[in-house]
Amino acid sequence: MGVEVAVRGLTKSFNGQPVWSDVSLTLPAGEISVLLGPSGTGKSVFLKTLVGLLRPDRGSILIEGLDLPRLSERALYEVRKLFGVLFQDGALFGSMTIYDNVAFPLREHTRKTEAEIRAVVTEKLDMVGLIGAERKLPGEISGGMRKRAGLARALVLDPQIILFDEPDSGLDPVRTAYLNQLIIDLNQRTEATFLIVTHDINTARTVPDNIGLIYHGHLAMFGPREMLLSSTEPVVRQFLNAQRIGPIGMAEEKDAEELAAEAQSGAELPPLPPIPLQLPPSDGRPRRAERPPGQWCREHGVTPPPGSFADGAGASPRAREPEPAGGPAGTGGGAR
Amino acid sequence: MSTAVDVVRRSGEFFAFCLDTLRGLGRRPVQVREFVQQAWFISSVSILPAALVSIPFGAVIALQLGSLVRQLGAQSFTGAASVLAVVREAGPIVTALVIAGAGGSAICADLGARKIREELDAMQVLGIDPIHRLVVPRVLASMLVAVLLNGLVSVVGVSGGYAFNVLLQGGTPGAYLASFQALGQLPDLVVGEVKALLFGAAAALVASYKGMTAKGGPKGVGDAVNQSVVITFMLLFALNFLVTAVYFQVVPQKGS
User: Fold this and answer.
1) Which of A90, A209, A270, B157 could form a disulfide with A146 if both were Cys (CB 3.0 to 4.6 A apart)?
2) CB-based burial of residue A291 (10 Å sphere; 0-12 exposed, 13-18 middle, 19+ buried)?
3) Helix, strand, or coil here: A18?
4) Which residues in chain A have Cβ-Cβ distances shorter than 8 Å to B114?
């Protein structure tokens, strides 16, 4: 079972330049959360702060009653064993083969025999579909394979919290769909707490249970997927629907003049697109953290945009024919 | 002003890094495998350059002294001068140059590349301290290799001087060997090795620090290597001067 991560009033700056300030959110145990934001808003910095690679200026990160920023270096190394992190390019050790990379945490931290290590490594490599590439060096395989190998290494110590730094950057749509399906299946199997940092809205719309949006140095909104997808808050709406009209400009945020001009020109926001169904696990059994589609909207009296949760009109997503593994990332309601 | 503050801050960080490494020395488990690999690697890149640099070094000393001592009629002391120059000064300096230039740059480039590929971050997240796992074995390996290299440079340098003196300048082999003890003494060799030990540690520490704080992509690694070599050179020559000055105060010299 996953672990809850509670972030309170977190603030970080580099050389006096604030990256983001006063970020408070709770990653619910066992759920998948996505952190979105325009490029350069410090999403990766947030992730690195969360594992204690960077120290925040203020605020706390509470995990199992421990406040990460106030731990000693040695205690921090202990807490980090709870984490598995997938870095952007996999961050594999270039001098070791894929097999040795995945075996590395086991060899350093456990007293397992080589035979036991082989069993665990083979299982994880099978999970990410890398059987047959064990003897290759990271330089000899493609970016997508490096990412999956990095994921296998992150999973090898059975972490309670798994962080993904842009798992979909630089991958083609098909590989992204496979990876998203893998994330869902992993969450079903391990029930760990997931945080995915990305700016791919398709991933953000279909994969997570919760969405957060960092914008202009603060957390604009964090909450259940349906809450953000049905939100009319300008920033959230603009970002989640990839529109040009709204407060986010090409460089950073638009200034007041531009916004006024935009309002004058009578540019109207297109209607909210339908909320797609959440990606189901490939074996059809529900995840523990999963909620029925439309539940949040019903409970909070929000009318979802017309056509939401389509794909079987009101029927449970389980009623659909079983998808081939990794297929359905782009399906379910037509995101854009 | 801000650059001055920057220099002070960097130095402070470097000393903190050295203390962390020192603390890492006592931590278990000792990374024997990494140590052996690194010692092998550093010796493989430094033995040949060290030997090739020290042969002309010995020869140059013989050349410089040759005509002078002949005019003074002190040919039998060429060996003494050669031992003094090579063992006391040339040995540690050549060791310093090679360790910083060949070993240090390789360490810095290796760690720098790991840093920008986020390998070091990944290692920390996996609960492994890169200082304990990577830096400590490199510092120890560099110290060991420097000590051995200093021995090699002394032997090759004196042999080079001997060959040059005997074969080309017509010196007497017996006189060259017999005068070894005239000016030099055993503590000279000891202090040479102590210097080499310090140089090895300093070069590896600077290279590791620079590598692990590299930033800004591949160009950042290039800059880090460049800075590491320059800083190490300056540091090693300063260190050499200090140790020599202390040595002359502490150990009585022959003929004084």
Assistant:
1) A90
2) middle
3) strand
4) 93-94
| CA–CA min distance A91, chain B (Å) | 5
Residue with tokens 């060997």: B177
Q: Is residue B240 part of a domain?
A: yes
ipTM over 0.90: no
Residue B50 forms part of a structural domain: yes
Give per-residue pLDDT as tens, B49-66: 998 988 888 888 878 887
Number of CB pairs < 8 Å for A and B? 56
**What's the gap in Å between the CA of B122 and the closest CA on chain A?**
6
Look up the domain containing B243 and give its range: 29-247
B74 vs B52: CA distance, rounded Å: 29
pTM for this prediction: 0.80
Cβ contact A87–B128 (<8 Å): no
How many domains, chain B?
Answer: 1
Q: Convert the pLDDT of each residue in B74-102 to its tens digit.
A: 777 878 888 888 888 888 888 888 988 99
Does some domain include residue B3?
A: no
| Whole-angstrom distance, CA of residue A61 vs CA of residue A83 | 14
pLDDT in tens, A186-201: 898 888 999 999 888 8
Q: How far apart are CA A174 and CA B71, in angstroms?
A: 86
Instruction: For an interface test with B, give the residue of A71, A108, A197 to mutate (most B CBs within 10 A).
Output: A108
What does the pLDDT look like over B3-48, one tens digit per residue? 889 889 989 999 999 999 999 888 878 889 999 999 999 999 999 9
B25 CB within 8 Å of a chain A CB:
no
Q: Is A5-227 in CATH node 3.40.50.300?
A: yes
Q: How distant is the Cα of A28 from the closest Cα of chain B, in angstroms?
A: 21
Query: Is B1 a member of any domain?
Result: no
Residues of A with CB under 8 A from a CB of B: 48, 51, 53, 73, 77-78, 80-81, 83-85, 87-89, 91-94, 104-105, 108-109, 150, 153, 157
Answer whether B6 touches A (CB < 8 Å).
no
pLDDT tens-digit map of A94-124: 889 999 999 999 988 888 899 999 999 999 9
Q: Give the residue extent of every domain in chain A.
A: 5-227
Burial (CB count <10 Å: 0-12, 13-18, 19+), residue B214: buried
Q: What is the mean pLDDT of chain B?
A: 88
Contact B121/A83, CB-based, under 8 Å? no
B124 chain-A contacts, CB cut-off 8 A = 51, 53, 77, 80
- Tokens encoding B114: 């790991």
Of B126, B36, B109, nearest in space to A80 by CA: B126
